[in-house]
Amino acid sequence: MSVTDQTLCLDVSHVFAVSPQRLFDAWLHESWGEWLAPGAMICTSSIVNPKVGGRYSVVMRMPDGREVTISGTYRQITPPHRIVMTWQGDYNREETLITLTFTPEGHGTRLTLRQEGFGTAEFRDRHLSGWNSSLDKLTAWVATP
Fold first, then answer.
1. CATH number at residue 34
2. Cis omega before residue 79 (within 30°)?
3. Helices marked H in the chain — which ranges?
4. Domain that holds residue 24
5. CA-to-CA distance for 131 and 106, rounded, in angstroms?
6. Can you give the pLDDT at residue 2?
7. In whole angstroms, how far apart are CA 29 and each of 35, 50, 85, 95, 135?
8. Residue-wise pLDDT tens digits, 76-128
9. Which long-range contacts (CB under 8 A, 24 or more apart) does 86-89 make?
10. In angstroms, how far is CA 94 from the centroid of its own chain?
11. Do residues 72 and 86 touch, judged by C-beta distance below 8 A?
12. What is the pTM (predicted TM-score) of this model?
């Protein structure tokens, strides 16, 4: 994984050993919460309406029992190349914008995730840790038929 640190913007890049379509589909799958919940968190609920203007919502339980809800709206869906969606957690009123780009690379796919609109560098940095964990889980998830 590589990270580009721009002020209040987060770029994460990772290569997966699957096709662009397989990786793209994982982001719109009804069970995406299985890999999205970072670290020891678990997904307790996931709703996905994968169309432009459609909403998604994921509820994740922390190890201490507290729950966090992440929700947003799909702004662009271009299979299997690009997804643009808003991202807002109930832990903060800040809404960010995520752009996912899926590019063929060798026998796999490079995912580039850009998240922008953070209010503070601290908030951005916490998301970096979460995304690194989620993408590690996604690697295993997409490898399973």
1. 3.30.530.20
2. no
3. 20-28, 33-36, 121-143
4. 2-143
5. 23
6. 40
7. 11, 8, 15, 22, 15
8. 999 999 999 999 999 877 899 999 999 999 999 999 999 999 988 989 998 99
9. 87/115
10. 16
11. yes
12. 0.92
Q: CA of 109: how far to CAs of 22, 36, 39, 42, in Å? A: 9, 18, 24, 26
pLDDT in tens, 3-30: 444 568 999 999 999 999 999 999 999 9
* Token pair for 104: 């063929």
- Total structural domains in the chain? 1
User: How many other CB atoms sit within 10 Å of the CB of residue 27?
Assistant: 23
Report pLDDT digits (tens) over 43-86.
Answer: 999 999 999 999 999 999 999 999 999 999 999 999 999 999 99
Q: Identify residue 62 by its one-letter amino acid code.
A: M
Q: Is the dihedral of CA 72, 68, 33, 122 positive or negative?
A: positive
Q: Which residue has the tokens 């919940």?
A: 37
3-class SS of residue 29: coil
For residue 49, what are its two tokens?
Answer: 């309406």
